[in-house]
């Protein structure tokens, strides 16, 4: 880490790189997102050989932002690392003492410490709420869910947060019933107005994200896998039509549907399973 910080400082210096010197927090924003998605793609493939390089790219973006801040007297990379280290110790009182030392196991005083993922999640949110209260912030359960998240993932995170305080269906059937309800309302809205249809479609997608959470699946990963499966299959449809002297541009919908069925029947592509589609038992917001 120290070497990377030194390299970044050199790149930003007068004898460094003109491109690096002109960057700002705002200009780097898309790169942070892009590098994160590239790391996710490697995780989806299960390519552990490529993972160190992709994680390094994400780390570089973090160091880049810290260097820009350091140049204006804001903070340094060490401050960011210390902040997350202190937060992890503070929010894991079932693992660490207040000084950061691991707790000794087997003591009776530890009998009330959380022992399940759901109990840990509840404790995490309680500690976070207490921190916000101490800082003078009003206690709002959803205030920490980033608005910049992809909408489907944000819906998942919102559902996870409110479920931590018991605002949830007892099982997946409740989420499925809610989806059925939203589909009926969407059908009705189609004959009303585009605005009403858009509202109901949003409600349906939100409900689907909650079903994914109940099934312990991440909707973004599941949808990425579905996108890839469709893309592979449609490429096979194009190849099928080309072998028959046609193309997707010239074929009728009936011809494309027939090709689709042939592809499914004769050479079904492997289902692209996302390695990260299976969600953890519970999420914690930072």
Q: Tell me the strand percentage band.
A: under 5%
Q: What is the first-to-last residue Cα distance?
A: 22 Å
Poorly predicted residue ranges: 272-276
Gyration radius (Cα, Å) is 25 Å
In CATH terms, the superfamily of the domain at 2-89 is: MazG-like
Beta-strand segment tally: 0
| CATH architectural label of the domain at 2-89 | Orthogonal Bundle
CATH topology term of the domain at 2-89 = Helix Hairpins
**Residues in helix, %:** 55-70%
Structure description:
The protein has about 290 residues and is mainly alpha-helical. Helices cover about 65% and strands about 0% of the residues. It is built from 11 helices and no strands. Helix 3 packs antiparallel against helix 4, helix 7 packs across helix 9 and helix 10 packs across helix 11.
Task: Describe how the helices and strands are arranged.
Elements: H1 2-12, H2 18-22, H3 25-45, H4 51-71, H5 77-90, H6 117-134, H7 151-163, H8 172-189, H9 194-214, H10 219-243, H11 253-266
Entry summary:
This protein has 286 residues and is an all-alpha fold. 63% of the residues lie in helices and 0% in strands. Helix 3 (25-45) runs antiparallel to helix 4 and helix 8 (172-189) runs antiparallel to helix 9.
Quickly list its features.
single chain; 286 residues; mainly alpha; Helix Hairpins; 11 helices; 63% helix; extended
């Amino acid at each position: 880490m120290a070497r990377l910080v030194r390299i970044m400082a050199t790149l930003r210096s007068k004898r460094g790189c003109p491109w690096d010197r002109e960057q700002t927090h705002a200009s780097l924003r898309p790169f942070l997102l892009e590098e994160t998605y590239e790391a996710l793609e490697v995780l989806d493939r299960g390519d552990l050989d490529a993972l160190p390089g992709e994680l390094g790219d994400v780390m570089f973006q973090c160091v880049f932002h810290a260097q820009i801040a350091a140049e204006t007297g804001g903070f340094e990379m060490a401050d960011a690392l210390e902040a997350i280290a202190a937060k992890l110790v503070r929010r894991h009182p079932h693992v660490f003492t207040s000084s950061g030392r691991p707790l000794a196991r087997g003591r009776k005083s530890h009998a009330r410490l959380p022992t399940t993922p759901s109990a840990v999640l509840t404790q995490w949110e309680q500690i976070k709420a207490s921190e916000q209260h101490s800082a003078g912030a009003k206690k709002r359960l959803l205030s920490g869910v980033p608005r910049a998240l992809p909408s489907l993932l944000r819906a998942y995170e919102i559902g996870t947060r409110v479920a931590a305080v018991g605002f949830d269906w007892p099982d997946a059937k409740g989420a499925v019933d809610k989806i059925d309800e939203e589909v009926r309302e969407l059908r009705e809205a189609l004959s009303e107005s585009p605005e009403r249809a858009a509202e109901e479609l949003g409600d349906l997608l939100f409900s689907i994200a909650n079903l994914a959470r109940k099934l312990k699946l991440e909707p973004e990963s599941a949808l990425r896998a579905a996108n890839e499966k469709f893309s592979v299959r449609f490429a096979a449809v194009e190849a099928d039509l080309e072998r028959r002297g046609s193309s997707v541009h010239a074929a009728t919908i009936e011809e494309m549907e027939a090709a689709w069925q042939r592809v499914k029947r004769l050479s079904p592509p492997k289902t692209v399973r996302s390695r990260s589609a299976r969600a953890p038992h519970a999420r914690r917001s930072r």
